[in-house]
Amino acid sequence: MKNIISVNNLSYKKIFSDISFDIEKGSFTVISGSNNCGKTTLIKLLSGLITTEKMIEFDSNYIEDINKTKLFLNEGIVILNEKFNFIFDKVRDEISFVLDNLDLSEDDKETRYNEVVSLLKIKKYEGLNPNTLNRKEKILVLLALSIIHKPKVLFLDDICLMMNRCEKKTIIEILHKINKEWGITIVMSTSKLEEAVTTDYIYIINNGNIALSGKPKEVLKDDNVINKLGLSMPFMIDLSIKLKDYDLIDDVILDMEGMVDLLWK
User: Fold this and answer.
1) pLDDT tens sequence across 77-100
2) Looking at the domain assignment, is residue 264 inside a domain?
3) What's the predicted TM-score (pTM) here?
4) Number of domains in the chain
């Protein structure tokens, strides 16, 4: 498949040193690594929030050669360490404001609004003040604002931070729907590897370089390297590896129910 993003010998300050990699169009790709390894900076570089010089291509064009308005229409960005305040007193008005700036008919705007609200399951919030919502609910509204224009790529920076396991599961499931049902490429950073288990590809960065890359299920088998990088193994992956060592299972199992069913056969 075609690459939507290509990084060619990227060096930036003392954070990255001559790294190269690709992100496939339509994929759900995770960038991971320990705290302060440069994940947020890399998301900003890939999305064009930080400019480079002929080192990053977005849809076959160097990112600095793309008109900024056109670039931002082709991407959605959620970076939580940036200060944000919702403008309107109702979620519906917040989303409608973005829609009003798109070249759509009134009927198409209403259709798009309903599509997004349904996809993200936020209809019950549309009459509420977005500033009063909890963290997970605010993330869902931010996602709505980021995909309402149907971008080619959605950039996310550690959006599941400080969420419990159930909340994370909900968000990841919704991201998979955005990826598959709307065909939006997702590039997400996280320091929690359990968020990457069901995605298409993972890059783990360390000391300015790519330490590991590949399909998550294969990369996360390398538990010795993962631990040396200061990352915690996802519980089900870690358990699978230990059970494989005792010849109790043949492959990595990602869900608890599947594990229980297999062991009790």
Assistant:
1) 998 865 678 999 999 999 999 999
2) no
3) 0.89
4) 1
